[in-house]
Design a protein that fits this description.
mainly alpha; globular; about 325 residues
C-alpha cells in the first residue's frame, strides 16, 4: 500500500503538471489579445505597450511559461486581467457557491438513486423495475442544456414559480433582511437548478445500485442467509445492500469532484455565480490568470478525489490489494 500511495502521488504530480502546461499553451495560441478589452483606437502605441507590459504579455511565450510555473509553485495565481482582484480570492468565492449547489445535488441524487435502485433490484422483473430503469436511462442520457432550459422556461418563465436566474434577489438584501428571509430567498433560487442537477444525476446511481445489487444477490452468503430463515428485510438491508454499496461509494467520491468540474452548463443556464460560470465568462474575456487558476484548482480536486476513492475502496473491500 505504501508503494502504491507513493506511486499514485507521483502520477498525480506529473498529470497535474501536464494539465496546467496544456492550459497555459491553449490560451496563448488563441488568436485574440487578452489586453484588447482595455485598448482603444485613441491610445498611443506607447500606452498600448505599457498595458501589455503591465500584464506581462510583452514577453515571449517561453518566458511567460517560466514565470507562470515559478509563481504557481509559490501559490501565486496572479491577478485577474478583467477585475484586477487576486485570482485565488475569486476562485474561493465562486468555488463555495459551486460546492453549495453541486454537493447538495450529488448527495440528494445519491440517496434517491440508492433507495430506488435497491428497491427495484429486490423486485426484479416487476413493472416498477422496468419503469425506473427506463426513467433512469432517459434522464442519464438527457442533453443537459435542453433539460435546464425546459425547466427554466416552464417553471420560471411560464409558471413563475421560481426566479429566472441568479443566487439571490439583490433588492431584497439591500435593507438588511433577517436570517430567515435570507435563507428563504437563497432556497427559492436554489430549488430549480438543484432539481435539474438531481434529475440528471440520480439515474446513474439508480442503475449502478440496481446492477450491483443484482450481482450481490447471486452470492452464496445470500442463499445462506435465506437458509437460516432471516427476514427478507434483514437480508436486503444488512447483507445484500451493504455489500452492493462498495462501487457506489467509489462513484460518489468521484462524482463530487466531477460535479464541481461539470457545473459549467447548469451554472450558465441558471446564472448561478459559481466557478463554472466564472470560467465561461473569463474565457470569453481572455482572462488568462483566472481561467488558468480555476482549471488548476478543479484539476487538483478531481485528481485528489480519484486518489481518495482508490484508497477508500481498498479499506472497504479487504479482498482488493495493490
Amino acid at each position: 500500500m505504501g508503494k502504491y500511495i507513493i506511486g499514485r502521488i507521483v502520477q498525480i504530480i506529473i498529470t497535474f503538471f501536464i494539465v496546467i502546461s496544456i492550459i497555459f499553451l491553449m490560451f496563448r495560441v488563441m488568436p485574440s489579445d487578452p489586453s484588447s478589452f482595455l485598448l482603444t483606437p485613441s491610445m498611443t502605441a506607447e500606452a498600448k505597450q505599457t498595458i501589455r507590459k503591465q500584464f506581462g504579455l510583452d514577453e515571449p511565450i517561453a518566458v511567460q511559461y517560466v514565470i507562470y510555473l515559478k509563481n504557481f509553485i509559490h501559490g501565486d495565481f496572479g491577478n485577474s486581467f478583467y477585475s484586477g482582484r487576486p485570482v485565488m480570492s475569486i476562485i474561493m468565492e465562486k468555488m463555495l457557491n459551486t460546492i453549495f449547489l453541486s454537493t447538495t445535488a450529488v448527495i440528494l441524487s445519491y440517496l434517491i438513486g440508492i433507495f430506488i435502485g435497491k428497491a427495484i433490484a429486490w423486485k426484479r422483473g416487476s413493472k416498477a423495475e422496468k419503469f425506473f430503469v427506463i426513467l433512469g436511462l432517459w434522464f442519464y442520457t438527457t442533453f443537459t442544456p435542453w433539460l435546464g432550459i425546459m425547466f427554466l422556461w416552464i417553471f420560471a418563465f411560464k409558471l413563475k414559480w421560481f426566479p429566472l436566474g441568479g443566487m439571490i434577489t439583490p433588492e431584497k438584501w439591500i435593507f438588511d433582511p433577517s436570517l430567515f428571509e435570507k435563507i428563504c430567498d437563497l432556497g427559492h433560487h436554489l430549488i430549480l437548478p438543484l432539481i435539474t442537477y438531481v434529475v440528471l444525476w440520480f439515474g446513474s446511481y439508480l442503475l449502478l445500485m440496481r446492477n450491483s445489487m443484482l450481482e450481490t444477490l447471486k452470492e452464496d452468503y445470500i442463499l445462506t442467509a435465506r437458509a437460516k430463515g432471516l427476514k427478507e428485510k434483514v437480508i436486503k438491508n444488512r447483507h445484500a445492500a451493504r455489500n452492493a454499496m462498495l462501487p457506489i461509494v467509489t462513484a460518489f467520491a468521484i462524482s463530487i469532484s466531477f460535479s464541481i468540474a461539470g457545473a459549467v452548463l447548469i451554472e450558465t443556464i441558471f446564472s448561478w455565480p459559481g466557478i463554472g460560470r466564472t470560467i465561461v465568462e473569463a474565457t470569453l474575456r481572455q482572462d488568462y490568470p483566472l481561467v488558468q487558476g480555476a482549471f488548476a484548482v478543479i484539476t487538483m480536486v478531481v485528481l485528489l478525489a480519484n486518489f481518495a476513492a482508490d484508497i477508500a475502496y481498498s479499506y472497504l473491500d479487504p479482498r482488493i490489494t495493490y
